[in-house]
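Q: Got a minute? One more chain.
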Amino acid sequence: MLQAKSAQKRQTAIPLKRRNPVDGTLVIILIMLLLAGLLVLFSATFYTGTSTRSPYSEVLKQLLGIGLGTAACIVTSRIPYRCWQHPYVVVGGLALSAVLLVLVIIPGVGVYINGSRRWLSLGGLSFQPSEIAKFAVVLYMATTLTYRGERIRRLFTGIVPVLVVPGVVFLLILEQPNLSTAGSILIVSLILIIMAGAKWRHILLMLVGGLGVGAFYAWSEPYRRRRLLSFRNPFSMMSDEGYQLSQSLIAFGSGGIFGMGLGMGRQKYAYLPYPESDFIFAIVGEDFGLLGCLSVVALFVALMLRGMRIAVRCPDKFGTLLAAGAITGGTIELTRAPVQALLAVNAKLREMGCDVREEEKRVILTAPERLTAFAQLQTQPYPGFPTDMQVQMLALLSVSEGTGVVVENVFENRFTHAGDLNRMGARILCSGRTAVVRGVPELYGARVTARDLRGGAALTLAGLKAQGETQVDGAELIDRGYEHFETQLTCLGADIRRVHANA
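A: Always. Here it is, folded:
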């Protein structure tokens, strides 16, 4: 828990250490995976390359892709992530994906290889539009689920409409045909729905339905049935559908525990067709053995875990700290600040009487003796006022002069901390998505409970303004998005400390 006492005004400049936009650990994992991939690709294609073209052609092609991908990552890392949820970006990405997916299945336009049209050729370079569609669907799902809020807990009015777009993309990719990529679209969509808070019975229902559709599709064509049957005993069908799978199993068996050594495997010598394709993991097993396979899997697991860690720690604390400076009536300077992301917040702070100056990567705020309530605030998707700052503004309005109205348009049930603020002396009346706040001259210390990350931060800010001592239970929720929160507030002049529940 956190114990906060009334903060005295203090003019200070805080050199906030913003997280590096490039995560070093993630970069190291990616480099290791890329190097491993290049080594295995060279081993898989060296033999076939010597007979047809340069033995380094596939590696050089991959290096070109790595270079283009790296450049794209550098460019996108400079763009605030909230920009990706702009309707123009989301709709534009979906529209581009739909056009490309339609083009790829048109005879004479899409590149036909091994019975499938999955590629488009542009200036000598070929690419799969389905890869662009993956990114577009993720943007759409993340944005749509954010706007849906609590409605995602309803099946027909919450989940089903969201799945229309991924369903259309799924069908377009099936026409190539490409069942694995189409299936991954639905799997990723389902994972995002789970993370958004859907009910488990709805998730199980979708799983059963998806498995039924997949089973029907897989069994609808003779060649698909043969492929499925070959998994039971591929060696019994070595002359047909089981040939490639059998050769891959031979490769794994030949590698043993430690492998035969880089480039020493034999299956790529015309035994395993297309070893550089989906079966390249068999080359890993043959050259590097079981230990090599486990190492590659471990790197992918580390990549996933690191990505999840970055995802849960992405909430921005700058707006909250600006609110801290405003509620205590002091002056605060934020360095390395995401100025563009704070424009909507800063506009409301100016309405409340704060002097806010925006410079390149720096925001300076000076608050008056008492804030003035704005008439109305409505949360909106970026670049509108962020819903993540709504509860902090409730705390500011509570000690402002006049009456203000806050309308929550993004999430439902986002006024759960209004009761805790009222316990401290605030006068907040909530009705549905609207909260009416009548400012009071001062708040009073009380024991309150943080129910989520931002609500806990807002209660802590209110404690800075309240007379006496305020105790905020559930500080671990605040820690999920705000590292060393109490330390940085102490720099603002707050009398705040962390205490254990049994202390």
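A: The domain at 2-18+316-498 is CATH 3.65.10.10 (UDP-n-acetylglucosamine1-carboxyvinyl-transferase; Chain).
Q: Perfect, thanks.
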